[in-house]
TrEMBL record, chain A:
Matching CDD domains: TM_PBP2
Membrane topology according to the record: Multi-pass membrane protein
Organism annotation: Mumia zhuanghuii
Domain of life per record: Bacteria
Protein name: ABC transporter permease
GO biological process: transmembrane transport
InterPro entries in UniProt: MetI-like, MetI-like_sf
SUPFAM superfamilies: MetI-like
Length: 285, 349
């Protein structure tokens, strides 16, 4: 009640709330506790309903090993392709007139506003054997047989990269916008070649954005379900698809264990990246 | 401080004033408030359930003013089991497919009362201990007339990608019919199909595995046929016929597997008696004929199957019972889990 009127004795930052500030976070915490934490605990219990045996069979099964491998490589490849495409794009966005920038931004965000399901089906219409791309290729006489663009790893990657690009472009754009141009000028005036200027000045300054983008794309990609199910084949299924299949056909036990494994894996990635970022942060200081 | 408590007290009073009537409404809304029996019927939903409502539920309510039928959808094996296990089934009559209602699943179901339901009216095989047939569907071999040199006429043709080039659409489900199709194509006589030799079947499917496009949803199977992405498919008959309306897709009626729907009554429902009466009505001749006029599925009623307007449709499954390969639902009920594990692992590699 006293916010803003009486000065708090010890201000924490600029927006001290006194003692009652925690009340403001209570609704969200309560929401998460009821709708996230509690189900998560239930899920962990469900996965342990047969002791560790469920985990044991998951870890020893060559099928699941392949699925884990598929998940990691497809998420990794999606991240790499997004980075390669988004970095120059974000750079150009920072160098053009505001009007062009708006157009470029719209290009990235437009697909963001369309439903993921609709986009995946649109890719099917485009990429399938009898789809537009293959019709065009065959019409131009470039191929006789339709190319297998769908139900293959490239098909999954096309769909996933399309969906994940905004998550890479936006953090990179923000990081690049914050780079002080005078630093680049200074580097040039001290005789740095453009390449050296990029590697020693620009790239390190955009690393936080690059890290955030990669982390977002990679962790979200790990849990992908609909896109690989629609654009891929079962032989390169990702974990999300296998979890869904387990829930539908066998019940919750193995599915919960797979979910816990995915969650643990994702957290591990986060921890490793956080440690790595800390080290970089320290060494650059 | 006093202001706070009074405000808090008012809030509680307001919440109570909101919740109490709601609780009262839900308490008395349940059943026989006006002497009526409310039967809750769960089916698959969509145009299919609409047809059932028109052919079965509405005329039944008209003839029995003391019964009110409330519809729910979709029905689901797991949900039914959970309801019965919890001791409070909300459904009185449920429609499910071949994989439920077998004798090994009797602990979740009331036995069909054949003193009420006329057993002799039903086609052979459609009067089970715990289920009565609802309609005859089928998993059929559908093909693109325009993309194949000739029409396929045997299970072996489905696996012959030289004579019949192109991809195949197949349900990504162990009990979806592909194992049976593979064994029949491999020369296993129909009479010796069960118990299924799963390894032999998978070996046979391996010969065309790279030509198979797996479908998860029926809509997908229809799209694959319509777009010409596949030249043949093992699909549900309704989808094959729908695809045939917009593109040159035909059904080969020499090669089809049973796929049916059955009415069942969850164990422990207080309305079991009324539920049996409804089922008895739904399998009689007139409603069955009416149903077939609304949808292309086959009838389970012996007399209805002979009616001219029912016979007239060349794609009605019940007109091809002589070539039907009946799936052994009892065997599947007992072996589904194990076969599914083998099959799913095989699909993923």
């Amino acid at each position: 009640m006293t916010v803003g009127t009486a000065p708090a004795p010890r201000r924490r930052g600029r927006h001290g709330f006194g003692g009652g500030g925690w009340v403001l976070v209570l609704p969200l915490i309560a929401f998460l506790a009821v709708f996230f934490l509690y189900p998560l605990v239930q899920m962990a219990r469900e996965s342990m309903s047969g002791g560790f045996s469920t985990y044991e069979s998951i870890m020893t099964s060559p099928v699941y090993r392949k699925v884990f491998w598929n998940t990691l490589t497809i998420a990794g490849a999606t991240t790499a392709i997004c980075l390669v495409l988004a970095y120059p794009y974000a750079y150009v966005m920072n160098r053009v007139s505001p009007r062009v920038r708006l157009a470029l931004m719209a290009f990235v965000l437009l697909p963001f506003w369309a439903s993921l399901l609709v986009r995946s089906f649109a890719w099917i219409a485009l990429l399938q054997d009898s789809g537009l791309v293959n019709q065009a290729l065959q019409g131009l006489g470039l191929t006789d047989e339709p190319l297998s663009l769908i139900r293959t790893t490239p098909g999954v990657l096309i769909g996933m990269v399309h969906i994940m690009l905004p998550y890479m472009v936006l953090p990179l754009y923000t990081a690049m916008a914050r780079v002080d141009d005078r630093l680049l000028l200074a580097a040039s005036s001290l005789g740095a070649t453009p390449l050296r200027r990029f590697v020693r000045v620009f790239l390190p300054l955009t690393l936080p954005g690059l890290g955030a983008g990669c982390l977002l794309v990679f962790t979200i990609s790990l849990g992908f379900y609909i896109t690989p199910a629609l654009l891929g084949a079962p032989s390169q299924a990702m974990l999300g698809e296998v979890i869904a299949e387990q829930v539908e056909q066998f019940g919750l036990s193995t599915a919960s264990a797979l979910g816990i494994v995915l969650l643990t894996g994702t957290l591990l990635v986060l921890v490793v990246v956080a440690l790595f970022a800390k080290r970089i942060g320290r060494s650059s200081r | 401080m006093t202001k706070m408590t009074s405000r808090g007290g008012r809030t509680i009073a307001m919440i109570a004033a909101t919740i109490l009537p709601l609780a009262l409404i839900s308490a008395c809304g349940a059943d026989e408030s006006d002497g009526k029996t409310t039967l809750t019927v769960a089916s698959y939903g969509g145009p299919y359930q609409d047809a059932q409502a028109k052919a079965f539920f509405e005329p039944y309510m008209k003839a029995n003013p003391d019964v009110k039928i409330v519809q729910d959808s979709p029905s689901d094996n797991a949900k039914l089991r959970a309801m019965v296990d919890a001791g409070k089934p909300q459904w009185d009559v449920v429609l499910l497919a071949n994989d439920f209602g077998n004798e090994s699943q009797g602990k979740w179901l009331e036995p069909i009362d054949y003193d009420v339901v006329d057993k002799d009216a039903l086609l052979d095989g459609y009067a089970g201990k715990y289920r009565a047939g609802a309609d005859v569907e089928g998993t059929v071999l559908a093909y693109r007339e325009d993309k194949l040199p000739q029409a396929p006429s045997s299970w072996a043709d489905f696996f012959d990608t030289k004579k019949f080039p192109g991809k195949r659409a197949v349900n990504k489900f162990a009990a979806g019919g592909i194992l049976e199709a593979a064994l029949l194509a491999d020369g296993v006589p129909q009479a010796e199909l069960y118990p299924l030799d799963v390894d032999r079947a998978l070996k046979k499917i391996d010969t065309i595995k790279d030509r198979i496009v797996w479908w998860d949803t029926a809509a997908q199977s229809q799209q694959l046929l319509e777009s010409g992405e596949v030249t043949m498919g093992l699909v549900w008959v309704g989808r094959a016929i729908d695809a045939g309306k917009s593109s040159p897709v035909s059904v080969d009626w020499n090669t089809w597997l049973s796929q049916d729907a059955y009415w069942m009554v969850p164990k422990g429902t207080p309305n079991a008696e009324e539920a049996m009466k409804l089922i008895a009505y739904m399998v009689t001749k007139d409603p069955q004929v009416e149903f077939t006029q609304l949808i292309d599925y086959g009838t389970v009623n012996r007399e209805a199957a002979e009616v001219e307007s029912v016979r007239a449709n060349p794609n009605r499954p019940s007109n091809h019972l002589d070539t039907q390969v009946p799936m052994d639902d009892e065997w599947w009920a007992e072996n589904l889990e194990g076969v599914m594990e083998t099959f799913n692992a095989w699909v993923l590699t």
